[in-house]
Amino acid sequence: NFIEFCKDTGLQSSNATIRNATIKLIGEVHKFIGPDIKGFLTDVKPALLGALDAESMRKILLRKTVKASESTLSMSAGGLDGLPREDISGKITPTFLNNLSSPDWKIRLESIDLVNKILEEANKRIQPTGTTELFGALRGRLYDSNKNLVMATLVVVGGVASAMGPMVEKSSKVYKEYYHVLKCLSDNKKHMRECTINTLDSWVAAVHLDKMVTTAIPRLVFEGQKDLFDWLTKQISGISDSSKALHLLKPSTSALTVYRLLDFLASLLEHPCA
To answer: Which is one GO molecular function term here (predicted)?
Structure first.
C-alpha cells in the first residue's frame, strides 16, 4: 500500500518538489529492503524509473562499507524485507498443468507464457505453495522437441526461482529440476547453452551455491562441461571465504574428465584465496 501510494500520488504529482521527495523516499526504502522493491515499480515511466535507479544507487554508495551492502542484499534474499509474496497455487490448475504437455506446441507455448504472466501479476514474488506441481510440469518441457519451447521454459524456471527467493528450497523436487536444467548444457546450440547459464544465474541468486553443487553436479557426465565449469569457476572466484570455496572442490571435480579437471584447478589457483 505504501509503494502504491508513492506511485499513484507522489510520482504522479505535477509538483516537481513532491516528485523529487518521493524519489528520495523510495531510495531510502530501497536501502533497507534491497532490489526486490523494483518488482513493484515495473509500471513506472522510464524517466522516473531512471531517476529511482540513480537515487537507489546513491543511497547504496553512501553506506560505504561492503559489510553494510552485503547485509542489505542478504536481508533481501532471505525474505526478511516484509514485502508480500503471493500464493499462486489457485492458478496452477489441473487444466493448466495438462496444457503444458499438450500435443499442440502452440498450447504448450501459451501455457509457458502464462507462467510469466502469473509471475508478473505477483510482482515476481511468490510463495512456494503449488510450485512443486509447476516444476514437475515444466520439467517435461525441458526435453521438448521444439528447441524454442525449451529455451522459453529455461527462462520461466529461472523466473520462478527468482520469484520464490530462498523459499525455492522448500519445493521438495527443486534440486531434481536443477539437474534437468543442467542437462540443457549438452545442447550443441550456443544460444541454448547461454540461456541455460542465465537460468543458473537466477537460481544461484536464490539458492546457496554449495547445495546446488553438492546435489546435482557430481551426477553429470556430458558434453557442455566446459560451459558449466567456466560458470562454476566464476561463482567460486567470487567467494571471499576460502574455506567455503574449498568445500565445493570435491563435488565439483568428481564429474570432471582429467583434462577438464586440470583446466578447472588451474583456474581456481588464480583465486585470491589460493
So the answer is: microtubule plus end polymerase
Q: Is 126 helix (H, G, I), strand (E, B) or coil?
A: strand
> CA–CA separation, 150 vs 195, rounded Å?
10
The answer for residues whose C-beta is within 8 angstroms of residue 198's C-beta and 6 or more apart is 154, 155, 158
The sign one gets for the Cα dihedral 262, 264, 265, 269 is positive
Q: Which residue bears the cell 504472466?
A: 117
Evaluate whether 25 touches 10 at the Cβ level (below 8 Å): yes
Name every residue whose Cβ is closer than 8 Å to that of residue 38 and which is 6 or more positions away in sequence.
Answer: 30
Cβ neighbours, 10 Å, residue 176: 14
261 SS3 class: helix
CB 162 within 8 A of CB 126: no
- Residue 228 CA to residue 147 CA, distance in Å, equals 20
Domain extent at residue 166: 84-207
Residue ending a domain, choose from 154, 185, 207: 207
pLDDT, tens only, 128-186 = 888 888 888 998 999 999 999 999 999 999 999 888 887 877 664 555 666 788 888 88
| Residues 57 and 157 reside in one and the same domain | no
245 in the same domain as 136: no
pTM score of the predicted model? 0.65
